[in-house]
Each structure stands twice: as C-alpha cells, then as structure tokens.
Amino acid sequence: MTSSCPVELRVSCRHLLDRDTLNKSDPCVLLLMQSQGQWVEVDRSEVIKSNLNPVFAKIFTVDYYFEEVQKLRFEVYDSHGQAGVGTHDDDFLGGMECTVGQIVAQKRVTKPLFLKYGKFAGKSTITVSDAGLGVPLLRLAPSSLFQDLFSKSDPFLEIYRIDDDSSEQLVYRTEVVKNNLSPIWEPFKVSLNSLCSCEEKRKLRCVVWDYDSRGKHDFIGEFFTTFEEMQKAMGENKVQWECMNPKYKIKKRNYKNSGVVVLLDLKIHRVYSFLDYIMGGCQIHFTVAIDFTASNGDPRNSCSLHYINPYQPNEYLKALVAVGEICQDYDSDKKFSALGFGARIPPKYEVSHDFAINFNPDNDECEGIQGVVESYQSCLPKIQLYGPTNVAPIITKVARVAADEERTKEASQYFILLILTDGVVTDMADTREAIVRASYLPMSIIIVGVGNADFTDMQILDGDDGILRSPRGEPVLRDIVQFVPFRDFKNASPTALAKCVLAEVPKQVVEYYSYKAFPPRCPQPHTPDSSLGSPQ
C-alpha cells in the first residue's frame, strides 16, 4: 500500500538579477511539481521587498513517496504586485529543477538559476533544504515588551540556527504584530532537526525587528539561547531573555535592554519516521541479483528472456532500471552491487550461485545503474546459462554485510536486495531459512518474477497471506519480502512497478530500527552556500 510523508522545504537565493529601476528586485518563489507530464503549481512564497539575497520564511510542504521519482521546479520572480506572482507583469529571475528524493537524501541542494533556453541567470543560485520533519516537535509561544519613546513598533521575531562553520540558517520567522509594544506571537511548530540539528546545546540567535513595508526593517535587538535552555519552559514554567541592541549598550549609559522576550510554552513530541532516518544520513545500499539459469533461453535467440534487443530493453533490464532509479537517490556514492546466480562462469565454468557480474570477486560494485546495465550486457556472452534456481546463497551473502552494519549499532545503512528470476526457486527450504535470519537485519528483499512461469509457490515468500516460517517453524521477525510477477506490469509505465515493490520499504526501515531502538543519526554538517545576513 502506497503511503506518503510530508516533507517541509525551505528556500533561499543568492545574487538574484536586479530588474527594478529604483529599488532592488522584490523576489517570490513558485513551487511546481510535474504531474502527468505537466508542471502544476503547488504553492508560492511570500514576497520579500528589495532583496537580492532573500531567505524565505515560507515552508513548502510536499507529500513524499519513496517509491516515486517526484520532479520539482522552483521559479523565482520579481513581483510587481498587481495581479499575483508569476503573471506576465512579473519579471522571471530564473528556475531550477530537482527531485524530492535528492533533497531528502542530500538534505541541501544548491544549484544555479537558469533563464529560458538554458541560459545562466548571471551568478544567481537557489538553495532548497529540508526544513526538518513534518512531525510537530516544538510548540513555541513567545511574547515580549519593548520600550519605544517615540512610537509603537510592528515587531516580528526570527530564529536562526548557528551551524558548525558559524553560518546562520533561518529556522522560523513569526508574523508581524502591528502597532504593539507587547506582542504575543502565534504558537508555531518546528522540528528538532531544523531548530538545532538534534543538538540541544547548539547556539540559536533570535532577532527582533521593527517591520518596514519597503523591506528596510529596523533592528530592535537580539539574544542567544539553546534548545536545552528552552526546555525549562515545559510545564508551568516560563523562560525569558533580555533583548539587547549592542549599539545602544555602547552609546547609552543607562541602557538595560530593548525589551524582554518570554517563552510561554514548549511541548515536545518525538516520533521517528522513515524521513528521520534518511535525513539523519541513513544510506540505502542497493544490490541486484540476476537469474542466469538455462530456463531463460539462449541469449542469442530473440525468444530468450535475456535477449538484448538494441531497440527495446528486455524484462530484466526494465525491472532493474525501474527499481534502481529510485534507490540511487539514497546512495551517496552511487555504486551498486550486481550479482548473478545459476550459471557456469569462467575460467573453470563451474556453477555459481553468487558471482559478481563484473567478474571482480573483490569488488562487485558497478558505477550507477548504467554501470549495472553495462556489466549485465557484457557478462552474457561470457557465461553458460545452467541451473538450478538457488537464491539462498545470495540472500546469505547480503545478510553477512548487513550483519556487519548491525554491529555498528547505528542507523547508517539499510540494504535492499532485488532478485530477478524467471521461475520458482529450487532451494525453497534454505531460502525460507535465509529470509527468517535476514528479518533480524537491516535489509529488505524484493523478488520480481520475469517471464510467464507459474509463480504461485513464490507467494509463500511474501508474508502478505500469512507469516513466513523457516522449515523449523521459526517465524520472521518482520515481513521483509515483496514478490510481484513482472507480467502484471507489462503494459504499465516503469514507475508502476517501482511503486508496487518499493512502497513497503519505508515501513520496513522504521520497523527494523524501532525494534533495535536505534535512533536516527544527527545529520552530518554540510557546507552552506553562504552566510545569511540580516534582512535587507
């Protein structure tokens, strides 16, 4: 069953083109998602007045599906405010395309902005980063009292996370409370990941501004805190900070502060999701295992399931590419293990049930999905298709690597084994035993039946109709096997197969790490594209 998770995205730009004559551009971002070949608007940000390096407070939320390639397009416009952003009255400042999977896996994507016809928009760049998780973790309700001798202010508050390289990342911007020296801002939700990168002692900078409609906001004051300190506001307690203006502190002899900011309430709700683990740096390692038994037919014959048609990929290649293209976004080195079974291999032409199709016993990894495809095609003329259809050795081989990973006691790597076979496995008892053992490890198994064989007995391995047990009666700890016949998707798009076989993986990942009580790792520090300054 397909399920989604909300992903929250934050956007900032640098060095935007200046299209205005008197002032700087007033940028706004439109988010579009590709649906059935068409770009459909999802949402748009606020307009930031007179700013060529905007950091947008708007959080874009999209439903994330692990099993799909979801293409996004971000378009930046200089808004003139007459008829809505993106109209012919607004100036196009540039666009960028990426996938949701890339943002989730990399946590931060920075790319140049392009104008029409592939032309660079000067030095303009756009950065899209995950704003944290879609689960409410904090609920903050700040209030303040500011003293202004001349008039009332229009205050708003910004919270910045200070990263390891001393750069600042905007976490949240409150609404503006008009004409008020004692504003109470609306409660808001922000994730622990976004607020402090899961580090309670990480320093936070909070800045209060007096809003100006032209974008030239007046600095009221600032204070520094940590999430550790914020937690004192839980229960009936309140936490308060003096809001300081360093210039006033130097110039004014009797200066105390520019007001006090009070944290009225804080609530924490911790729920680990698949996104928590991926954003925490968990890598998905993809291994493909290909059936080279004689029942596939002579690869030189056009009737063979392994026949290489120069104009159309065979079923093995279609299944491999459909699933592999999804998984590759979650593996940073883009290297995939590719194995074969059921063939006689050189130099002695003995039957092997777990050989590297690149014939490198020390390193079975290929460069990207294309590397797997090329190794598969060059492997066929060098081997003799034989038998039987034994898959337990390959499951055991991948399980050994997964067991090594388990011993690290970290949620750092999860393994997906894709087995492509043209018939029912011969070593069913050993396969059941191997699957039960693997269910205790960080791995999932996808089996795609290629060709027109009767795969009824293969349904035993898929626990959807009951609990799979070893020959000794031991049940699997988790349901980790998904079996589908490729013929059910023969007339569907390649994405349909990937959706079906990968839809259960997020649940399987969470089940494993929950059972082991392994929390997500804290995201590794990344190098931001630039420091974030004060609003212009």
Automatic annotation (TrEMBL):
Family annotation (PROSITE patterns): C2 (PS50004), VWFA (PS50234)
InterPro entries tied to this protein: C2_dom, C2_domain_sf, C2B_Copine, Copine, Copine_C, VWF_A, vWFA_dom_sf
Example GO BP: cellular response to calcium ion
GO molecular function, one term: calcium-dependent phospholipid binding
One Gene Ontology cellular component: plasma membrane
Domain of life: Eukaryota
Domain VWFA per the UniProt entry, residue ranges: 285-505
Tagged with keyword Metal-binding: yes
Protein's UniProt keywords contain NAD: no
Name recorded for this polypeptide: Copine 7
Originating gene: CPNE7
